[in-house]
């Protein structure tokens, strides 16, 4: 009779001992692997995303990884999808508005993205963008997120009474400003940075 290899129903991180009695250890689901990968990506970039590194960081064997992912590329795809969906949710939440409050919401968008309160979030964003410089799949995901960002704010400017052409230019200007500020060291440039940023915001959203 032909012998067939049957995949164990138990992930490697909780596989049994020699006598087949289960001895639970740390159990990881795909989401935990993706979260660990994103943390490494933010710190070390795409070059740091190695199965050995992640397994050691999570305190499990490489076998655990291959239980959940076919290969390293499958993990990469999961990381990109997780980041994309997370960005889209945040964009929708940030740009949601009630009719009549468009300008207030546009100022809020600038405040949220310009505040740079989430350093880790920016590190992840920069790591993803650096990855996109060398990988077509990552580039496609970044492009999709950027276009969604621009489209959501374009709709806000249109709802505020601007023409489509003007709305597009203001939308691009808005993100060029907030992302540019996140990359620059400008604290000594002005003694009252909050006021300076407010003047910039007023120019971007002015009717």
Helix content: 55-70%
Determine the N-to-C terminus distance.
80 Å
CATH topology of the largest domain: Tetracycline Repressor, domain 2
* Low-pLDDT ranges: 4-25
Give the overall average pLDDT: 85
Globally, the shape reads: elongated
Strand content: under 5%
Order of helices and strands: HHHHHHHHH
Largest sheet: none
- Assigned CATH architecture of the largest domain: Orthogonal Bundle
CATH top level of the largest domain? Mainly Alpha
Helical segment count: 9
Explain what the structure shows.
This protein is an all-alpha fold and 207 residues long. It has 2 domains: 69 residues, Homeodomain-like (Arc Repressor Mutant, subunit A, Orthogonal Bundle); 136 residues, Tetracycline Repressor, domain 2. About 11% of the residues have low confidence. 67% of the residues lie in helices and 0% in strands. The radius of gyration is 23 Å and the shape is elongated.
Give me some keywords for this one.
207 residues; Arc Repressor Mutant, subunit A; mainly alpha; Tetracycline Repressor, domain 2; 2 domains
Explain the layout of strands and helices.
Elements: H1 30-44, H2 51-58, H3 62-68, H4 72-95, H5 102-115, H6 119-132, H7 136-159, H8 164-183, H9 193-205
Helix pairs in contact: 1-4, 1-6, 4-7, 5-7, 5-8, 5-9, 6-7, 7-8
Give a brief description.
The protein is an all-alpha fold.
């Amino acid at each position: 009779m032909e012998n067939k290899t049957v995949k164990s129903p138990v992930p490697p991180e909780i596989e049994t001992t020699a006598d087949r009695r289960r001895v639970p250890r740390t159990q990881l689901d795909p989401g935990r692997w993706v979260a660990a990968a994103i943390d490494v990506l933010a710190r070390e970039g795409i070059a740091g995303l190695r199965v050995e590194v992640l397994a050691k960081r999570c305190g499990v064997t490489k076998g655990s990884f291959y239980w959940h992912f076919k290969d390293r590329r499958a993990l990469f795809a999961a990381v990109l999808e997780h980041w994309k969906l997370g960005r889209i949710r945040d964009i929708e939440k940030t740009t949601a508005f009630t009719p009549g409050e468009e300008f207030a919401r546009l100022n809020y968008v600038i405040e949220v993205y310009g505040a740079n309160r989430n350093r880790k979030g920016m590190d992840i964003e920069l790591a993803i963008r650096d990855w996109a410089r060398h990988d077509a799949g990552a580039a496609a995901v970044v492009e999709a997120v950027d276009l969604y960002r621009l489209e959501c704010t374009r709709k806000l400017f249109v709802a505020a009474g601007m023409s489509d052409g003007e709305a597009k230019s203001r939308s691009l200007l808005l993100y060029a400003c907030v992302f540019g500020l996140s990359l620059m060291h400008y604290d000594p440039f002005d003694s009252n940075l909050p006021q300076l940023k407010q003047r910039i915001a007023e120019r971007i959203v002015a009717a």
